[in-house]
Amino acid sequence: MRFRDKVVLVVGGNSGIGRASAEGFAAEGAHVFLTGRDQKTIDETVAAIPGARGFRADISDIESSAEVIAAIREAHGRIDVLFVNAGIGAFVPVMEVTAQQWDEIHDVNLRGCFFAVQKALPLMTGPGAIVITGSIGSVAAVPGNVIYASAKAGLRAVARTLAAELIGQGIRVNMVSPGPTETPIINRSGLPAEAVPGLRSMMTQAVPMKRMGTPEEIARPVLFLASDEASFITGIDLFVDGGCVEL
Ligand SMILES: NC(=O)c1ccc[n+]([C@@H]2O[C@H](COP(=O)([O-])OP(=O)(O)OC[C@H]3O[C@@H](n4cnc5c(N)ncnc54)[C@H](OP(=O)(O)O)[C@@H]3O)[C@@H](O)[C@H]2O)c1
Fold it and tell me: What is the pLDDT of residues 140-151, one digit of tens each?
């Protein structure tokens, strides 16, 4: 029960890694608030997590978090743990990248994630923890991944800067960077459906452990970094990737 009575906001908590983390926080006693875009999966997730509350908010619209922030302020007056996890993928070769595609991905994965933190910070008045989902894509050179990789690398810089700036307020900021993980994101990368099995098999082969991770295997390190067990850890980027980056 590492999160007994803690107030936790999971931004992008209605699917995959975010949902597994929201379930984990709640199972350890947290009051969980979560956001996402898709009302159906928000409703399903909230129904599966006793006491959780879900809100529709598109992270690329920086004012859209106003409703969830107001609800948390009214119910608890504070946020103890912020998990900024929302993200979308895109595989586009360099010569096919359009400015619109670039902006769409960066508006969610970089700009939106930064402003999600900024909008939540006024409620992070005590000691607290922020965890941000990065990706091994920020350090791996993968053809076709330029938009996503650059956004996640920028997000890494955001996390490091936040860690330095918030240390005096007792707020730790860390990043968890997954390797290939079995979540719905693989079907949302913009590739045609028939290309997905090939992508999955390519990704699996690239992992030294020769398998993809599960959302729960990413959620566990997220919970660790968000908890007091990680009280002396700030500014890190923890690769949770079956050995992709280090081996
Ligand atoms: N799976 C992997 O292999 C992998 C590897 C490295 C990093 N990651 C990162 O892990 C994070 C979670 O992804 P996942 O794999 O769990 O995929 P997922 O199941 O597709 O979950 C993505 C989450 O982000 C939310 N989201 C996306 N765009 C949003 C927007 N504009 N506004 C608000 N919420 C938005 C989604 O909500 P909706 O469903 O409502 O859109 C969903 O909750 C992402 O940051 C991703 O980049 C994943």
Answer: 999 999 999 999
pTM metric for this prediction: 0.98
CA dihedral 163, 165, 169, 175 (to 10 degrees): -20
From 10, 15, 67, 203, the mutation candidate for ligand 1 (largest count of ligand atoms within 8 A of CB) is: 15
Lowest mean pLDDT among 19-23, 83-87, 132-136, 191-195: 191-195
CATH of the domain at 87: 3.40.50.720
User: What gap in Å lies between CA 148 and CA 146, rounded to an integer?
Assistant: 6
pLDDT of residue 168: 97
Q: What percent of the chain has pLDDT over 70?
A: 100
- Number of folded domains in the chain? 1
For ligand 1, pick from 10, 11, 14, 17 the residue to mutate: most ligand atoms within 8 Å of CB. Answer: 17
* DSSP per position, 34-61: EEES-HHHHHHHHHHSTT-EEEE--TTS
Q: Strand, helix or coil at 93?
A: coil
Residue 195 belongs to what domain range? 7-240
